[in-house]
Design brief:
8-stranded mixed sheet, about 260 residues, Rossmann fold, 10 helices, alpha/beta
């Protein structure tokens, strides 16, 4: 894909990076990323995925913008309060870069709808706030053979993990959390609190990891880090990394005929 002069100018700071270059930027323009959840993680992740020139974005969120969101959900303004997040996110994307192809869904994601919504994606980035949805996202990614970035945040801590459970030797998100959480929600930030900038750190780091994964076929910016869970601490501050093992008894990636 040849980049227009306007696109070359827009992404010049990427193109001069030897790890990306013109070929990498053109590859990003052809990629399709699904963002599940457009809240504290999804908002900054969307900003940096769009800023990177990822050409096709599918935005999923069934919620509406609330006043309390504005402390950390950076794509919204007071004018968006009461409006659907997916619609407001599409409006932000169009104002930011009308060269992007953006589709939305404002219905709640379910195990039944996920395969249709994820079809054709190169990567799914999940920033939702409950285990049932995260596991539905993960299971669909395994079945469709799509890589998954799963991100979470609360108070002063966050985590971002890359999963490729469709590969024989790699874990999925269910390998990490198990089956016990399918119907249980996480604690909410309304109960526990959250530093707004912490959500920004997690979301922007997730976008960095998304770019890393998408550019792997070209050599890009390094190993995709499958099965690595990065734990971000805003109080220390610092980061440490865990390696997640594939669960030989996982009902999603080890007993589905994939491995």
């Amino acid at each position: 894909m040849a980049l227009s002069p306007e696109r070359l100018d827009r992404f010049a700071r990427h193109i001069v990076l030897p790890e990306i270059g013109g070929a990498g930027q053109a590859a990003l323009e052809s990629m399709h990323v699904v963002l599940v959840g457009l809240g504290g993680i999804g908002s900054p992740a969307l900003q940096y995925c769009a800023g990177a020139g990822i050409g096709q974005l599918t935005l999923l969120d069934d919620g509406a913008v609330e006043t309390s969101n504005l402390q950390r959900q950076t794509i919204y303004s007071t004018r968006d309060i009461g409006h659907g997040k997916a619609v407001a996110a599409r409006r932000w994307s169009g104002n930011f870069d009308d060269g992007l192809s953006v589709t939305i869904s404002d219905t709640r994601l379910t195990p039944e709808s996920a395969p249709r919504l994820f079809a054709g994606a190169d990567l799914v980035l999940d920033g939702t706030d409950n285990f049932a949805t995260r596991l539905a996202v993960s299971d669909a990614c395994v079945a469709l053979r799509i890589p998954l970035l799963s991100a979470a945040v609360g108070r002063f801590q966050g985590q971002v993990g890359a999963f490729a459970g469709h590969l024989p030797d790699q874990p999925c998100y269910r390998c990490y959390v198990g089956d016990a959480f399918d119907a249980d929600d996480c604690d909410t930030c309304a109960e526990d609190g959250m530093l707004g900038a912490m959500a920004g750190w997690v979301g922007s780091f997730a976008a960095l990891q998304a770019i890393r994964v998408l550019l792997v076929p070209l050599g890009g910016i390094g190993d995709p880090q499958w099965g690595r869970l990065h734990l971000l601490d805003g109080l220390a501050p610092g980061m440490r990394t865990l390696t997640i093992a594939k669960d030989p008894a996982c009902r999603a990636c080890s007993t589905s005929g994939i491995s």
